[in-house]
Amino acid sequence: MVRQPSINAQNRAPLSTERIIETALRIVDGQGLARLTMRRLGDALEVEAMAIYHHLPRGKEQLLDGLVAHVASVPADTGAAARESWRDVLRAWAADYRTRLLAHAGVLPLVVTRRNPAALTTTVASLREVLRRGGVAEDAAAVAAHTLLGYVIGHAALEARDTAEDGADRAIDWEARFTAGLDLVIGGVR
Fold first, then answer.
1. In which residue ranges of the chain is CATH 1.10.357.10 found?
2. Which UniProt keywords apply (predicted)?
3. pLDDT digit string, tens, across residues 68-98
4. Looking at CB atoms within 10 Å, which of 27, 35, 100, 167 has the fewest?
């Protein structure tokens, strides 16, 4: 089947890796990760699925890595670290990061399971820089950065599942629980 160009084809943005990733993210957010196929993605982009491979030669593997990078690569504002308390900068980053992960909860399983260290390298490096600027020793900053990243990702994963992992028979106030845990993590940094 040869796809005929639609009337809107002249008005849409050209196909690019960014446009492909953003469209895939909309599919995952709206329909779930299991519904993301190259054919469905091609339909949403109004192109043949094979056209996607021009931008993503490794196909779906590269697409999934791109989703992780798009959602999970969120560096801390190292410039703010010079103006504000490093603890406040990390709290703000953690709250924003949690919000982003929850907004794209369908990608969370990929963030947790995919072997894509490049997707998180920039984020970890920026967290370490905030900590170093705050006077935290290099070794402690490295441990703290990974611990903070792991805490936020893990909490978001539990929250997205609405897991009552403590066996409580009452509703969990996820915001209060996140803040309390974040205070423990950041408060333990020396």
1. 73-187
2. DNA-binding, Transcription, Transcription regulation
3. 999 998 889 888 877 899 999 999 999 999 9
4. 167
CATH number for the domain formed by residue range(s) 7-57: 1.10.10.60
Tokens of 34: 């299991």
Which tens digits make up the pLDDT trace of 55-72? 999 999 999 999 999 999
Write down the residue that tokens 């999934």 correspond to. Answer: 64
- Other residues' Cβ atoms within 10 Å of the Cβ of residue 74: 16
Distance CA 11, CA 94 (A): 38
Q: Which long-range contacts (CB under 8 A, 24 or more apart) does 96-104 make?
A: 97/152, 98/152, 98/155, 98/156, 98/159, 98/178, 100/71, 100/74, 101/71, 101/72, 101/152, 101/153, 101/156, 101/157, 101/160, 102/156, 102/159, 102/160, 103/29, 104/25, 104/28, 104/29, 104/71
Compute the C-alpha angle 58/64/69, nearest 5°.
110
Torsion sign across C-alpha atoms 118, 122, 125, 127: negative
pTM of the model: 0.85
* Residues forming CATH 1.10.10.60 domain(s) in the chain: 7-57
CATH of domain 73-187: 1.10.357.10
What is the distance between the alpha carbons of residues 84 and 78, in angstroms, rounded to a whole number?
Answer: 10
